[in-house]
Amino acid sequence: MSTSDSPATEPVPAAGSNGAPLLELRGITKRFGPVQALTRINLEIPPGQVTALAGDNGAGKSVTIKTIAGLWPPDEGELLWEGNQVHFHGPRDAEAAGITTIYQDLALADNLDIVQNMFLGHEPLERGLLDEAKMELTAKATLQELSVRTIRSIRQPVASLSGGQRQSVAVAKAVMAKAKLVIMDEPTAALGVSQTRTVLSLIKRLASQGVAVMVVSHNLNDVFAVADRIAILYLGHQVAQGPASGFDPSSVVDYMTTGRSTRTAGDGAAGAGKAE
Amino acid sequence: MPDDEFSSPSVPSELQEPPLSTELAEDETAAPESDAELTAAAPEVLADSLGDYLTAQWRRIKSGESGALPVIAGLIVIIIFFQLERSKFDSALNLVNLFQQASIYILLGAAQIFALILSEIDLSVGFVLAVGGFTVAELIAPPVNLPWWLGIIGGVGVTAGIGYLQGSLITRLHVPSFVVTLAGLLFFEGVVIELAQIDKHAVGGVMSLDNSSPVYKLVNNNISVAWSWIILVVVIAVYAAVSIRRAARRRATGLAAPPLSVTLFQIAAAAIGGVLLVYVCSINRGLLIPLKGVPYVVPFVGIVLLVYSIFLGRTRLGRYMYAIGGNPEAARRAGINVQHVRRLAFVLSAMTAGIAGLVYLSFLGSISTGVDGGTYTLYAVAAAVIGGASLFGGRGKPLHALLGGLVIAVVYNGLALMGISAAGQFIATAIVLLVAATIDALVRRRGATGV
């Protein structure tokens, strides 16, 4: 990450954002029978920044992103999208609004090539037949915008790609779908060191283009390498939120494991306050 | 909002470098992957010249990523073997007969490919073929006496309906296709016997065709030699024009395009195949009266395969079939109506089996309750898999059915000429199928570890 081509500390505000968060969660609560999965979660996701959602296993990270993605509507609380309250009744609603979720399995068809995967479900037609030239040019341009350069041919099947390259294809797919918010679930979980680097710089580049990125991770190295903001969940409660500069790895570990931190660096997070 | 930013020229200059920069070594542990990538990409894309193209093809074949070439090579070897064993094998009469036989296997293979792409299977095709043949025969014979073309539409329509029924059971009730179509195989054998019993014109369970019926002429009559050559020239010219123009247009828009030499090579290969075919058919093969020309069924099968190729390769629905075969979850998340597409695959499969039934009826001039549907089902699977479709889903083209169907017909025909019993023919076909399926499994495993 020596070539810091995206401003990590000075995010580019997107046009018309006025500094307001793109997505805001207010008091989101989700119960599964007797299990209280989320308790009054407050979260702000600004455009043009990478927000890391950290937490130990079972902290509620997955439930949170599935609530945002429209899979599980919340029991209480509101979702504000671009300042307006919204109700997503399914993943299709969230996608229509401009939210793309990239799950760990990436949802790519191995037997199709990169172009075919990027356009799956949205193929442009020319006289009733697939417009391959248009797809190929658009795909190529999108990958170049994201500086994805390790791919030899965009006509090779996804099966032949490495984990990092697959992740890049999934991100490019989201960009092409004009996503305003890209949620990535453990994007580096299965990757080696150098591929992790590639993906992290890709995430930064995505944010520098004005897209809001939310990265779910429990890998602190990745969180600090990429995040502009950090939010931490602990047993379904949101225990801290704020600019990444207000945290250090040990305070994040404290929040993740005990729900509180007494360390000095925690002050920076005080602005966002605690959930309770 | 992002649109504007993406199209803005404020992209840092380093982003405008062409891909494939030196970052490859730095960003990725690329050593093992680059090899897999090389073999995975279509050789046309990577090649700069004909030599490159052939090297790329060879690399693919070596890595088990078999294209059509190994099957063609295998086919030639089998043909040479039979030619050495039986000099009658390459007689014009036998070769044309072989094309006629093969057309049934090719259509059955194409039927099966629709199911295989989705990693499903359609075991009912053997007797759906029989239902299709019987329906056509009964519709154009007394007492119904429909015109031949309505009879064909009726027969193919009935089989498409069968496919819809089976597909609905599979998609709505989530019964595995293996079970539904296996039940279908038995069920439609019963239906065929019932059809023959109801119709008093089916003497002894046999429905015969009138020799003057266009349905009979489909396989048994020929395009005149002159027209055969004219059609061949037109087809090759159109193919050449389309592929050269497409490559030129791709080059003009800055996309990777095969070099002209590769395109010309492909056109030349197609032309040689076509000339051989028409030449063989133009030799007089009649024993008493002159008999020559290309049987109508050859262009008929060609058109069916062309339509299927366009459907699978160049339409959204075709693309969705491959996507579902590769990763149904990805297809679902992409907003594809997975169940609808799966049902359509079974409709197309049964409908194509119905078309095979039409050719079967025409070839024999009659159809009886004794149709060996079980064997035809196995030949359908064998033709598809031998040709290169995968039993694991996601891979298969109409071209594979063409090649696989030809292999089966050659083996069947050659062994029959050698006087080998039905038992020997079954065993030989089974071994060919097993070899093809094993190669399929090996390719898949190699592909899995290559990632």
Q: What topology does this entry show?
A:
The complex is a heterodimer of chains A (276) and B (451).
Chain A: E1 23-32, E2 35-45, E3 50-55, H1 61-68, E4 76-81, E5 84-86, H2 91-97, E6 99-102, H3 114-118, E7 125-126, E8 129-130, H4 132-145, H5 163-176, E9 181-185, H6 193-208, E10 212-217, H7 220-226, E11 229-234, E12 237-243, H8 249-258
Parallel strand pairs in A: 3-10, 3-11, 6-9, 9-10
Antiparallel strand pairs in A: 1-2, 1-4, 4-5, 7-8, 11-12
Helix pairs in contact in A: 4-5, 5-6
Chain B: H1 2-7, H2 23-27, H3 31-40, H4 43-46, H5 50-62, H6 69-85, H7 92-117, H8 125-140, H9 148-172, H10 177-198, E1 206-208, H11 214-220, E2 222-223, H12 225-252, H13 260-282, E3 294-295, H14 297-314, H15 316-326, H16 328-333, H17 338-364, E4 366-368, H18 373-387, H19 398-417, H20 422-450
Helix pairs in contact in B: 6-19, 7-14, 7-17, 7-18, 7-19, 8-9, 8-10, 8-17, 8-18, 9-10, 9-17, 11-17, 12-13, 14-15, 15-17, 18-19, 18-20, 19-20
CATH topology name of the domain at 35-110 and 177-272 in chain A: Rossmann fold
Total beta strand runs of chain B:
4
Shape of chain A: globular
Assembly type of the chains comes to: heterodimer
Radius of gyration of chain A: 19 Å
Beta-strand residue percentage of chain A: 15-25%
Helix content of chain B: over 70%
How much β-strand is present in the residues of chain B?
Answer: under 5%
Largest interface: A-B, 60 and 63 residues
Strand order of the largest sheet of chain A: 6-9-10-3-11-12
Question: What would you say the CATH architecture of the domain at 35-110 and 177-272 in chain A is?
Answer: 3-Layer(aba) Sandwich
- Say what the CATH topology of the largest domain in chain B is: ABC transporter involved in vitamin B12 uptake, BtuC
Q: How many domains is the backbone of chain B divided into? A: 2
CATH class annotation of the domain at 35-110 and 177-272 in chain A: Alpha Beta
CATH class of the largest domain in chain B: Mainly Alpha
Number of strands of chain A: 12
As residue ranges, the low-confidence spans of chain B are 1-37
The CATH level-2 architecture of the largest domain in chain B is identified as Orthogonal Bundle
